Amino acid sequence: MRPAGRADTASLYFTYPQFEAPKGAARAGLARDVAVAIVGAGPVGMVAALTLAQQGIASVLIEAKDSFNDGSRAICIARQSYAILDCLGVVAPFLEKSLGWTTGRSFYRGQQILEFHMPDGPEEKFRPMYNLEQQFIEAYLWQAIEATPLIETRWRSRLEGIEIGDSGARLTVADPEGSYSFHADWVLAADGARSAVRSQLGLRLQGRNFEGRYVIADVQMDHDYPTIRRALFAPACRPGATVLIHRQPDNIWRIDYQLGDDEDPAEAVREEVVRDSVAAVLAEIGHTGPWELEWWSIYSANTLALDDYRKGPVIFIGDSAHIVPIFGVRGLNNGIADAHNIGWKLGHVLTGKAGAALIDSYTPERRGATLDVFANASKSARFMTPPTRGWQILRDAALGLALTHPFAGELANPRQMTPFTYAESPAVLPDDAGFAAGPAPGAAMIEARVGAGFLSDRLARGGFTLVCFDPTLARAVEALPGTPAVACLPWPSAAADRLGAGHGAAYLVRPDLHVGARWQAATAEAVRTALDNLCFREV
Amino acid sequence: MTPHEIEQVYEALAEGIDRAAPEAPELYLARACLLLARALPSAEAALAAIAAAGMTSTAD
Question: How does pLDDT run across A312-351, given as a tens digit for each residue?
């Protein structure tokens, strides 16, 4: 929502492009069969299309709207998402524009009770978190899509129907010039929380709705505070509530405040009410200068997910598969990881590098990640919005105690963000007991300094990489057909120490930067067998 | 005690209060305090914690 008199896309800092539906000669191919259709050209759909393109797979991207999403929406992009964007070769404009941060501060009744620092250091290529308005996220992904001939985007094209058949699905699409249908072998549903694909197929999200409702409002102002996330518990301006404040590029500040049980949501989003609420928060943080209201929205803290992220040839990615509370900043980040995960798997299957069973590992891996978010989000929600008398008493007691006892302040730590470990996945091999350090199979590969760059710079983009330390092993692996790229690192080295690796050790890293297998004494044959197993190849 | 263990205690108390309802939370919490005090090595430790809790009263 925007102030009266301003259109939905009349932003103070962003010019929305206007996209056209397919025209002229482009219409001739609309009804042709395609290998992959992606419904929804938001950030998740675009990451899926770029991941498939990196695998050499063409896709058709269908979007009902004629521009990017309205408003700043998902503003926190986590380190692992930047690693994915880097892997796709598109991270540069993100780094240029976004604001990296490591620190959060929590306040109770105006007093600081906690300052937390997310893990960071010179061995990390990316900061733990970056703030960037979602319009820019979409615009930068779109730049890359426009430069990729393998992706055909159809704007102003609404999915009207989908029918699952023996060898794929038939999609019916309506655009301003008419409607048509076409066959897709695979469909990725990236069409968001109100997914048309999901409702067309009669699938329902399962889970629970928390009671708490929050308004998010963006203001533009000159405000002198570093990029540190502030959480205000029981502030004077909203005594029973929690307020979050984030800095974004272009002097935009996100104010996120909880509504009381007695506040009517429809009334709370009226412009005058939003202005009064924001003014009270700004007074609380000592901002006395002018400010302009940019955009606002309302949300509730739900934890909902599909039981299975796949139905035949249709695979759900992002919010169509799961809705998580936004204060955990896992909505977009998990969506990006979903898109990257299915993208490489589908790409490997469609190019004959992997067996079809690889696709079956998508739901356990990514739904597992969602359930992990739910567990953390439920804790955060219970702290920010205590659901019962018991939780309320303990929360208030902890906050009061935190003024003088730092241990109690730790209970307010949101514990944002370590990438989920795919411990139970069929696309991960058992660990080698010989490791005392380093990421186990299923975990995200760690970052490390290697020479003048980083370990991640040495990983194959879109393919498997064997990270090893013994040049003889590296040569033996390179000599075998159908084996992964090899990154042979110095030994001894800081990287080897962080990986807990002896001279003969090796890590097999999947295209999504998660560890697939590791050995203290690797052999070329073991590596090849592992790769066959991880790719479900019939041998 | 690790932060994770503190969190377990926090959660157990919150759920304990709710389970004890409609009994007043202070009765449940007082019982918990007495049992926790009994588990401490000395009365001094219990009395110090009781005094510290009183010093961070959040009443307006």
Answer: 999 999 999 999 877 777 889 999 999 999 999 999 999 9
Query: Which of A299, A303, A295, A293 has its CA nearest to residue A334?
Result: A303
Contact A445, A466 (CB under 8 A): no
CB-CB: which of A109, A390, A407 is closest to B18? A390
Contacts of A391 in chain B (CB under 8 A): 14, 18
pTM above 0.80, yes or no: yes
What's the pLDDT tens digit per position in A135-177? 999 999 999 999 999 999 999 999 999 999 989 999 999 999 9
How many Cβ atoms sit within 10 Å of the Cβ of residue B23? 11
How far apart are the C-alpha atoms of A23 and A153, rounded to whole Å?
Answer: 12
Domain ranges (residues) in chain B: 3-48
Say how many Å lie between the first and final Cα of chain B, rounded. Answer: 31
What interface predicted TM-score (ipTM) does this complex get?
0.94
Which chain B residues touch A385 with a CB distance below 8 Å?
A: none
Do A390 and B17 make contact, defined as CB atoms within 8 angstroms?
Answer: yes
Domains plus CATH for chain A? 449-534 (3.40.30.120)
Q: Whose CA is closest to A240, among A256, A227, A221, A257?
A: A257
Given this model, what pLDDT does residue B57 score? 58
8-state DSSP, A319: G
